[in-house]
Structures are given as C-alpha cells and as structure tokens.
Design brief:
about 550 residues; D-Maltodextrin-Binding Protein, domain 2; three-stranded antiparallel sheet; five-stranded mixed sheet; alpha+beta
C-alpha cells in the first residue's frame, strides 16, 4: 500500500480519537481548503472507452479496508476466500486484498489506520460521523479523493443512478459539490427494519389486543408481569451510552412529539429533544413503568444482543423494540423450537391518543453512510478502484451483491430471484448466515427490493406497521455537513452534552434523581452549549436543502 506523505493526518487522527462518536459528529463536514483538488475540471470529461466493461484486463491489484459481516466469519476469515470474493474477482477481473478490523474494534482500528499514514486504496466506513470535519475535511486533508471526475470517466453505472435520482445525488455531495463515496443504496422497501414487538401468544391468552397507545401498553405490560410472571416485561438493548442509550428508536418518547436525539420539528427547525418541555413527561412515564417493574430493571446493562436474546427466549420479557430479521425472525425461529405457540407480532409506534399518527420512529435514508466506500489519496490507480466499485451498480454486479452466485445461492423462478434450498434449508445455519458467504449484506451497492430474509408472515406484516409514522419528516439526516470550524465546535460541545444527558436519563428513569430536577438539567445542558449545536445543525440542514 502506498504511503500518504501528509503530516496533517496524524493530528486529524488524534482528533478522531477524541471526538468520534456517532452523535457528536453524525453530521460533520467542513469548508474547502485551498489545498483540496477542484470538484470539477473546466472542460467536460470524456468517459474512458472501456468504462463499464468487465472483466477489466489488468495485472494490477487493489487493497480494501472494510468490516466483514460477522456471519461470514463462521465460514471464512477473509472476504477474498469466500465464494462472494472469488466470484467478484472473476467477474471484475480485479484482484483485491482485504483487511478486516476485528469485530467490535472498527472505530479504534480506523483511527489507527488514519494515523498510520499507510492507507489502502479504498476504505469502507462512515466518513460523515467518524472523521472529524466530515468528508469535505477528509478531502482537504488529502485522505480521500473527490470523485467527480473519476465518476464521470469510470463509473457509468453509478453516474446513471445519480442522474435519475436527484435526492440521492444531493445526499452524496458535500456542500461545495464534491462526491466523496460510492454509496450503499437501500431500496425503498428497506428503509424501515426495526420497531416495537410483543408476544402475540401471550396477548391471545390474556385476551388483549395489540397495543397502539401508551395507556394500552401500560395495561399489556402490567398483565405480562402479573399474569405471565415476566420479570422484565419490556426490555431493549442499551447501545453506546453517548450515541443511542436505551435503544427504543423513540418509542414511547415519540408519543410526546419529541425524540431522544436531535430531530426536525414540524416547522423544519432542528431541536434537541432531551431538553424539550414534553421530554419531561416522557421521562416521568418511563420512571413510573420502571418503578412498577414493567421495564427491565437491568436495562442499562443490556450492552449486547445476547442479553436480549436470553430474556425474550426465557419468557422473562414479552416486549421489546428490535430488528426485523436479527430480532423478530431470529427469536421466532428459536422460540418455536422451544414452544410451537411462541409468536411475536409488530405493534405500531405508540401514541397518546387513539388513531394519532406516530410523530417519529425508525426510518433510515436510502443512502447508508457507514457501509459506503471512499477512494483514498494513497490509491495507486484511482481509475481502477472506481471501475471496481462501479461494478456493484451494474445489473450483473447488483445480482451478485444481493443474491450471490446463480445456481448456487439462488435461482431465477418466474423471472424473480429466489434463494436456493442450500441457503434456506441448512440444518445448522440460518438463511442470513448462509447467504453471508455469497453476498455482501452491507456495502456500496444498489439494494434490490426483491431480496428478503423474512421467514415468517409476521415479519412481512411488521414493515407495513412500523412505517406508518412521520419519521421521514422528523429524522435529521446523518449527512448534512457543518463547516470545519463548526464541526470542531460540535464535537467539543456534544462530548459533554451527550455524556451528561445519558447519565441523567438513566438516573431519571431509575428514580436516582427526581423528575423535579428536570429544569436544572435543562439549564445545565444549555450552559454546555446545546443552543449553539442546534444552530450549527440548522445552518448545515438549510445548506443541505439548497444543494
């Protein structure tokens, strides 16, 4: 791998280690530095004659740093050895050496990689939230390349998609018009994949309907505790306290028309939910439920999915907010082996009034920053790297990335791809595990709406239930770009704000601090500079909307 002779990256990496949390700089970027290459040349770029033709005739190889799906490591330690990696090399004609960070250590190893000045040709990571100053700063620091000319010359497949979809085009640019990644593009039916769910067999036994309001949820959870013996009627994962905390995707909190994060209000203004007046009411509700034993008393210790698995499958919990496949599907598959009656069902995001549309919930954007690839300034042959990346957006490439190898992992039936029995009926591994050998579950490619890991009707029904929210109006985009100086300010301020907010959130819910101290808590957060952060995000959001 070629070295980048740029001393700036050392200091930048130090900043990363100090400031890189998803909440701190989830929307960070920067102003252009004079040293940065221009976004476009003055003359029109002529596409390379062989652009879009595969396999490429070359003796050169590429290097890629990217996370490997944990399911795949049960079969192969490196993507190059997997059927997917071998097939991608065969179809593109380009050999790639992959480096994978250890599971759970991606952030730390990314920081070390940037500090090393010894970069691979491409890096798959979240350049929006994990590089201080965001993608525009990364370009100015000569860590990654602006891709405008490279896409024009060597990426006809991605270029066509950007011309057809102006909203996607806007998402992939900095404020000054530079493309910076090859994106993971979710299909329209892949934007909602997490939400509230309950034990349907328990509801039926207790003759209770699926709850839709906060009051109905209270009735259900109380019945789960008193009549089913659930010791943690409602549980959920607690993820990285400085980012997500109690990972309920604003269920219950959203009923009060606020969020446990920065969000966009009905007037298009950025707000910090945890200091909204109505957030106090949400905290009071959660404290009441906790005090009555309706919320898992150990919720702040649920750091990984295994603790949730145990509670759901041991009948300690009857409700949670979880993933469609990695939650509902996984639990249904295991639970039914233990008890054929075991059944989970999706519930709407709860509201205060019957028939009200939920204010917010989980809904992602079609562009998924963490699973997108940038070409580094160390790339030996950027044109070759871009040709390799563009293959994933071709018709044949998209089939490989989504479904794998025809005749092995899937076949086409009635014009539609269907996973093979080899994938769906393995006695030891489930579909997601098996298909991870043949596809890239997350990464820079065009997602196919026909791909589904659902094995139960309840999963198919869940998306239609969870998507009925106004999340598309209220979730703040993760790819708005504060300027360099603004990003530094946001990172510095949000470090203290996020830490204190989460500390107090847990104390309020557990009753270690009385809700009466909410006004003092709000004042302290404002004193820490939350209004300044909100204004920075507002300016960046306004610029994004004008792109």
């Amino acid at each position: 791998m070629k070295q980048v002779s740029n001393p700036k990256t050392i200091s930048i990496a130090v900043s990363v280690m100090i400031a890189s949390t998803g909440l701190l700089s989830a929307c960070s970027s920067s102003k252009e530095s004079p040293a940065a290459p221009p976004a476009k040349s003055s003359a029109p770029v002529q596409p390379a004659a062989d652009a879009g033709k595969y396999p490429v005739s070359t003796t050169e190889s590429l290097s890629s740093w990217e996370q490997i799906n944990p399911n795949a490591t049960a079969f192969f330690p490196n993507l190059a050895d997997a059927p997917f990696g071998k097939q991608l090399e065969k179809e593109t004609g380009i050999k790639v050496k992959y480096t994978h960070p250890a599971d759970g250590q991606a952030k730390e190893q990314f920081n070390l990689l940037i500090a090393s000045n010894n970069l691979p040709d491409v890096i798959e990571y979240d350049w929006n939230s994990q590089y201080p100053g965001g993608p525009q700063k990364a370009i100015a620091d000569k860590v990654i390349l602006p891709l405008n000319d490279l896409i024009d010359k060597n990426a006809p497949n991605l270029k066509k998609l950007l011309q057809q979809d102006k909203e996607l085009d806007k998402m992939l640019k900095t404020d000054d018009g530079k493309y910076y990644v090859f994106p993971m593009i979710r299909p329209d039916n892949g934007l909602v994949f997490r939400g509230p769910m309950l034990r349907k067999d328990w509801l039926d036994e207790l003759q209770l309907p699926v709850p839709t309001t906060v009051d109905e949820w209270y009735t259900v959870l109380k019945a789960f505790k008193e009549k089913k013996g659930a010791t943690a009627p409602f549980t959920a994962q607690y993820v990285n306290s400085s980012i997500n905390g109690f990972d309920i995707q604003d269920a219950f909190i959203g009923a009060y028309h606020t969020a446990n994060r920065y969000y966009v209000d009905d007037q298009g203004k950025i707000k910090y939910g945890p200091i909204d007046p109505q957030f106090k009411d949400a905290l009071a509700l959660l404290h009441k439920w906790y005090a009555e034993g309706l919320i898992d008393k150990d919720f702040a210790l649920n750091a990984d999915s295994k603790s949730i698995d145990s509670k759901i499958l041991s009948n300690a919990s009857g409700a949670t907010v979880g993933l469609l496949a990695g939650g509902m599907g996984k639990w249904m598959e295991t639970g039914k082996k233990q008890d054929p009656k075991f059944q989970l069902v999706a519930a709407p995001y709860p509201t205060l009034k019957q028939g009200e549309r939920p204010f917010i919930g989980q809904r992602d954007f079609k562009y998924n920053p963490p699973a997108s690839k940038a070409v580094t300034a160390a790339a030996k042959n950027p044109d070759l790297a871009v040709k390799w990346l563009d293959y994933a957006y071709s018709e044949k490439g998209a089939m490989l990335f989504n479904f794998g190898i025809e005749g092995e992992s899937y076949s086409v039936q009635n014009g539609k791809p269907a996973f093979s029995d080899k994938m769906t009926k393995d006695p030891k591994y489930n579909l997601q595990q098996m298909i991870s050998q043949y596809t890239k579950p997350n990464g820079p490619f065009l997602g196919d709406p026909r791909k589904s890991f659902n094995t139960f009707k309840e999963q198919d029904d869940a998306v239609g239930i969870w998507e009925k929210t106004d999340a598309n109006k209220h979730v703040m985009p993760l790819f708005i770009t504060p300027t360099t100086e603004e990003s530094k300010e946001v990172a510095k301020l949000n470090t203290a704000i996020a830490s204190y907010k989460e500390e107090m959130f847990v104390k309020f819910v557990m009753g270690k601090e009385p809700i009466d101290k909410f006004d003092e808590y709000v004042k302290r957060i404002k004193d820490m500079g939350s209004d300044k952060v909100v204004q920075i995000y507002q300016n960046a959001y306004d610029r994004y909307n004008k792109r």
